[in-house]
Structure formats: structure tokens, C-alpha cells
């Protein structure tokens, strides 16, 4: 077996953590021949509960789990890590304004960005799942000046997977028949799942379905508001699916995208498709040798343009708010 890959997970004692850790430890991320060492970060009051989770990890006797370290200090936990999955975040409490939420999360993601900057491995790759994911990623990235900005990303893969699954259900196709799905913009209700480039068995999905009303009034809201529907049904937010998408995102980053397909990742904009440079926005990306590239040259119709612009405008507002708070 090769040297263990060190994977940090924050918010490790939370709901998503409870699914994510076991998937990583069992080899879902790097396969059966690559050992992993888990570095788990929590806030001090949650460490006891995290110890319980570690006992369960021990009890699984996973052949690929080479070690587990836990702690409440990012500078210790992130030391030498190759991947950082930043899941722990401050949820919106009752009466909390968006500015308060951004500020509270700035208090988490600014120090975590600094710690990664100081102690992570040279090949560090960061995935932010904790909400507001895009802007939290921007905060972490802005506080890590020595790490290439391209190493920071936010999760829109859950939205991407939801978009594939809903399209498969509508068309009767298998999820594996669907290629080139894109989520554009923010991981929020303004996100735009794009059926004008997605293909079902090689045919453009929007042409195949040929029903703009369904696309606009059923499909897009179903994908964008799926998180709320899960909370309604389950009484708790998406956890196993969010963990699975976090694994998908990190695995694609490590292993690449197959020929003829792409995935959605929120990454730092270089101005592609008119998305303001510097925003962490979701794009269609291909990945090769651990580096992502935004798919270029897609034509956007007026409908897509307006949807993308609205979501990007929301990201720009969030960026301005965290700039105003001195977080970036
Ligand atoms: P939980 O509240 O169950 O767990 C969060 C954990 O983070 C808690 O154990 C808490 O102690 C810990 N934490 C808080 N501050 C921390 C810090 N400074 N350092 C380390 N740990 C810290 O939430 P869970 O359901 O696991 O969700 C985690 C995050 O994922 C939330 O922000 C949630 O909104 C977000 N989600 C993002 C999704 C996405 O697609 N990007 C979808 C699912 C999920 O809603």
C-alpha cells in the first residue's frame, strides 16, 4: 500500500460527518489500495461526541484506515493534510440576518484558511460544503495567500446529482445516460441547473423534453429547493446525500473527469461566461491530473444568461458583504 493520504474533515461530529467519515475510511474516496489518515476538527464541546464516532470507526476495522486524529485547533489538525473537506459551519439561527450569518462563518473560515495556509501539504485541495458554501470558500481562499486560489472550491455536486436524478426520472433514462450536466452560480435557491447543454443518450435534454414550462416551473425549482423538501420530509437537512456528493467532488478532483463529460464545481472565476473575476461560482469543469478547467465555448441563450446573471449577482452581494466586514 502507498503512503496514507491525509484528509481533514471539519464539523466531523455533525450529521454529514457521520456519513462522510465512514465512506472515506472505507475507501470510497481513493479506492481500496490507498490508505487514508483522518484528521477531524470540531469545536471543543463536540469533541466528546466525536470520540464516540472515532470508537465506531475503530470498530469497523477498515483496511484502508491508517489512523485518526481529532482536535479543536485547526493549526494542529490541518498539519500536512492533502485534502480538507470543510463541512462544519454556523447555521442560520432564529432572527439571524444574512450579515450576521456571513460574519459568524467568517469567524470560522478565515482562521481555517490561515491555518491551511500555514500547515497544509503543498498539494492541498479544499472543498467547502458548509453553507453559505461559495462565500465561505471565498473567505478561506482569501485568507490563504500562499495556496494557489485554484485549490479552493465549494460543493455544488449535490445540486448536480439532484439535477441528474430529476432529469433521469422525467425521461426514463438511467443516470448513467446523462452527461454534461451543469449547475451554474451559487449553491442557493438561485442556482441554475442547465438543460440546454445536458445530454440524455447524446441528445440535448431541453430539446428532448421540449417543454419550457416544465423546465422553468417544475424542474428548476425542484432541484433548487430540494434541500428544503428533504427538511420537510425528514425533519433534518440532507446528510448522507451531501456526504456522498462531497466524496464525488473530491474523487473527481483527484481522479479526473471521463472523456465526453464534465461535472459542476464552484471554483474561482477567471471571468469566463461573464462571471465577475474572483467570485467562487459554479461552472461546468473538466479535471485532469488534479487540475480543473472551466469548459469553454458553451453558447448561452437569453434564458440561461438571465438565470446565471441573477445567481452571480447574489454571489457578488455576498462578496461585498464579507468585504465590508473585513473578512476578505
Ligand atoms: P450539523 O449541525 O449536524 O454539523 C455541523 C458540525 O460543525 C457540528 O458538529 C458543529 O459542532 C461543527 N462546527 C461548528 N463550527 C465549527 C468549527 N469552527 N470548526 C469545526 N467544526 C465546527 O450540520 P450538517 O448537517 O452536518 O451540515 C453541515 C453544513 O453543510 C451546514 O452548513 C449545512 O448547511 C451544509 N450543507 C451543505 C450542502 C451543500 O450542498 N453544499 C448540502 C447539505 C448541507 O445543508
Automatic annotation (TrEMBL):
Residues 5-147 form the Lactate/malate dehydrogenase N-terminal domain. Substrate binds at residues 92, 98, 131, 162. InterPro entries: L-lactate/malate_DH, Lactate/malate_DH_C, Lactate/malate_DH_N, Lactate_DH/Glyco_Ohase_4_C, Malate_DH_AS, Malate_DH_type2, NAD(P)-bd_dom_sf. Coiled coil: none annotated. The active site is at 187 (proton acceptor). PANTHER family: MALATE DEHYDROGENASE. This is Malate dehydrogenase. It comes from Branchiibius cervicis. The lineage of its organism: Bacteria, Bacillati, Actinomycetota, Actinomycetes, Micrococcales.
Amino acid at each position: 500500500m502507498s503512503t496514507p493520504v491525509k484528509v481533514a474533515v471539519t464539523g466531523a461530529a455533525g450529521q454529514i460527518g457521520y456519513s462522510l467519515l465512514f465512506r472515506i475510511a472505507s475507501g470510497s474516496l481513493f479506492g481500496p489500495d490507498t490508505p487514508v489518515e483522518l484528521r477531524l476538527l470540531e469545536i471543543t464541546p463536540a469533541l466528546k461526541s466525536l470520540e464516540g464516532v472515532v470508537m465506531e470507526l475503530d470498530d469497523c476495522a477498515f483496511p484502508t484506515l491508517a489512523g485518526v486524529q481529532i482536535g479543536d485547533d485547526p493549526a494542529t489538525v490541518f498539519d500536512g493534510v492533502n485534502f480538507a473537506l470543510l463541512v462544519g459551519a454556523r447555521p442560520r439561527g432564529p432572527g439571524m440576518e444574512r450579515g450576521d450569518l456571513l460574519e459568524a462563518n467568517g469567524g470560522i473560515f478565515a482562521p481555517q484558511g490561515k491555518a491551511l495556509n500555514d500547515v497544509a501539504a503543498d498539494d492541498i485541495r479544499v472543498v467547502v460544503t458548509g453553507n453559505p458554501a461559495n462565500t465561505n470558500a471565498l473567505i478561506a481562499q482569501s485568507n490563504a495567500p500562499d495556496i494557489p486560489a485554484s485549490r479552493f472550491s465549494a460543493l455544488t455536486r449535490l445540486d448536480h446529482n439532484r439535477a441528474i436524478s430529476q432529469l433521469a426520472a422525467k425521461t426514463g433514462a438511467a443516470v448513467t445516460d446523462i452527461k454534461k450536466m451543469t449547475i451554474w452560480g451559487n449553491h442557493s435557491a438561485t442556482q441554475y441547473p442547465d438543460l440546454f447543454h445536458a445530454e440524455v443518450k447524446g441528445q440535448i435534454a431541453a430539446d428532448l423534453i421540449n417543454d419550457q414550462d416544465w423546465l422553468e416551473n417544475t424542474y428548476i425549482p425542484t432541484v433548487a429547493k430540494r434541500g428544503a423538501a428533504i427538511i420537510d420530509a425528514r425533519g433534518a437537512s440532507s446528510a448522507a446525500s451531501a456526504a456522498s456528493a462531497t466524496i464525488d467532488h473530491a474523487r473527481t478532483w483527484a481522479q479526473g473527469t471521463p472523456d465526453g463529460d464534465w461535472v459542476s464545481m464552484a471554483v474561482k472565476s477567471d471571468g469566463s461566461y461573464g462571471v465577475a473575476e474572483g467570485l467562487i461560482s459554479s461552472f461546468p469543469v473538466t479535471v485532469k491530473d488534479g487540475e480543473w478547467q472551466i469548459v469553454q465555448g458553451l453558447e448561452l441563450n437569453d434564458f440561461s444568461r438571465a438565470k446565471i446573471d441573477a445567481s452571480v449577482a447574489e454571489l457578488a452581494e455576498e462578496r461585498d458583504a464579507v468585504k465590508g466586514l473585513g473578512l476578505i
